[in-house]
Write a structure and sequence with these properties.
By secondary structure, this protein is an alpha/beta fold. It contains 16 helices and 24 strands. The chain has an 8-stranded mixed sheet, with helices on both faces. The protein has a 7-stranded parallel sheet with strand order 4-3-2-1-5-7-9, sandwiched between helices. It has a 3-stranded mixed sheet with strand order 16-15-22, covered by helices on one side. Strand 3, helix 5 and strand 4 form a beta-alpha-beta unit. The longest helix is centred in the C-terminal third of the chain and has 13 residues. It is globular.
Length: 444
């Protein structure tokens, strides 16, 4: 087949391509760098002729023009699986709506329960065999495209080609329309510079990692701090199996620590589901034969995770209560991010031979007025539980690490209060006493 001729046949302007959208449709924007800005802008230009068009996306850094052009939501309604900072602000204003999920289940949702009419996704340029690569959004995009009536790809030649399973790419025969973006630079999100507290937390976790361990790092200052500490450590032959790959892994690779040579499965391959980072990070991923992209239905499957010996999972949370419940996605009922894959990796790492799952947080935070608050609280008040107390494993703050597995309520209260900032410990003890989860002998 002459794929170049087929490419020309399917090539459209963005305004032409979005003519397939009808009132009442569900339009899929996929995730992070899979967001197609030219198509989004073109769809926004059809505002006055469309009504009740529902859009799904997640971790999109904005701006999303269909939202910006329709503040009353008479034409477009935006929904997100997992909030970026931009999407969080939309939710705060009632301009977007959250969809609860666990990442490994998204393919199941789309295949069995959801209506999806149009998929709009940014991809790499086409290769000689007629394939476009989903790049940074590969973990979710194929399962979405497979369940849509129309698939429109927006080509950006800056999108890295990440190799792996068949789910990392889509063939031109499965694409309805092709739009060329003009190849704007990809949005970059280098890992934030770790704070002194981030480094302290990471230093408590580092001794728990052994040579040959497979590591999952979440996003944020603390996981990045750990990646940098690992890069400077004496650890050897670490592996990667992660939902989200970012610059922390690139630092480990450059230091010779990330070899994937001792992985129990996918030997020699660093496995990822989605990716976001710096320009240099994207260059590292591009056409790298040592990187294996795979759908999140595989990457986040606890059974798959558990097959890695010495699986180390490191994620962040917003708060924890004295019962061991962990909130990683809301402040009260205000949505901050999402469940994502935290519970997947906590479950899988806990099942791994020698595995450990860490949930990390600073012991305090300051509000807008500068007042200091404890992240360890007596009990939640409307906060969404991301990891239930029955699955809580290691909790870490700058004051140390506690293993809650199998512990009683009074043991948990004691351990968690010792991880809290000293200024809040007496108050937490009083609350634990009121809730009847405190032994007098616990006091120090």
């Amino acid at each position: 087949m002459d794929y170049k001729a087929l490419y020309k046949e399917k090539l459209r302007t963005a305004d032409e391509a979005v003519q397939c959208v009808k009132s009442g449709d569900w339009v899929e924007y996929t995730t992070n760098l899979g967001f197609a800005p030219s198509l989004d802008a073109a769809l926004s230009r059809r505002r006055d002729e469309l009504h009740n068009v529902k859009i799904r996306g997640d971790l999109i850094f904005g701006p999303v023009q269909v939202v910006e052009c329709d503040p009353e939501m008479e034409h477009f309604v935006y929904n997100t699986w997992h909030c970026s900072g931009y999407e969080r602000k939309l939710c705060d204003k009632g301009r977007a709506f959250f969809e609860p999920m666990i990442f490994r289940n998204l393919a199941w949702y789309y295949k069995n329960f959801l209506t999806s009419n149009i998929c709009m996704v940014t991809v790499s340029d086409m290769d000689e065999e007629g394939y476009f690569y989903f790049g940074s959004s590969l973990g979710l995009s194929k399962c979405i495209a497979d369940n849509c009536e129309f698939v429109i790809v927006e080509v950006n030649r800056n999108m890295p080609k990440i190799y792996g399973t068949e789910d990392v790419r889509i063939h031109i025969s499965k694409v309805d329309f092709i739009v060329e973006s003009g190849d704007p630079p990809l949005f970059e999100m280098p890992s934030p510079k770790p704070t002194e507290t981030d480094v302290m937390i990471a230093s408590h976790i580092l001794p728990h990692i052994c040579d040959g361990a497979t590591v999952q790092l979440g996003i944020g200052g603390m996981p990045n701090a750990l990646g940098e500490l690992i890069a400077k450590s004496d650890l050897k032959d670490l592996g990667m199996h992660t939902e989200l790959c970012s610059d922390g892994y690139y630092a480990m690779f450059k230091a010779g620590k990330l070899t994937n040579a001792r992985k129990s499965i996918n030997h020699g391959k660093g496995v990822l589901g989605i990716a976001i980072g710096s320009h240099e990070f994207n260059q590292w991923l591009n056409e790298n034969p040592d990187i294996m992209g795979a759908p999140l239905s595989y990457v986040n499957d606890p059974y798959v995770i558990s097959q890695h010996e010495n699986m180390i999972s490191i994620n962040a949370c917003i708060s924890a209560d004295l019962f061991g419940q962990i909130c990683s996605e809301s402040a009260g009922t205000r949505q901050i991010s999402g469940t994502g894959g935290q519970l997947d990796f906590v479950t899988g790492a806990s099942m791994s031979k020698g595995g450990k799952a860490f949930i990390c947080m600073t012991s305090t935070y300051s509000d807008r007025n500068g007042a200091l608050h404890s992240r360890i609280v007596p009990t939640f008040n409307g906060d969404i539980v991301t990891t239930p107390r029955s699955q809580a494993f290691y909790i870490a703050t700058e004051y140390g690490v506690a293993n809650l597995a199998g512990r009683t309520t009074w043991e948990r209260a004691d351990m968690l209060i010792n991880l809290a900032h000293p200024d809040f410990r007496d108050e937490l003890i009083k609350e634990a006493e009121k809730m009847k989860i405190w032994l007098p002998s616990n006091k120090r």
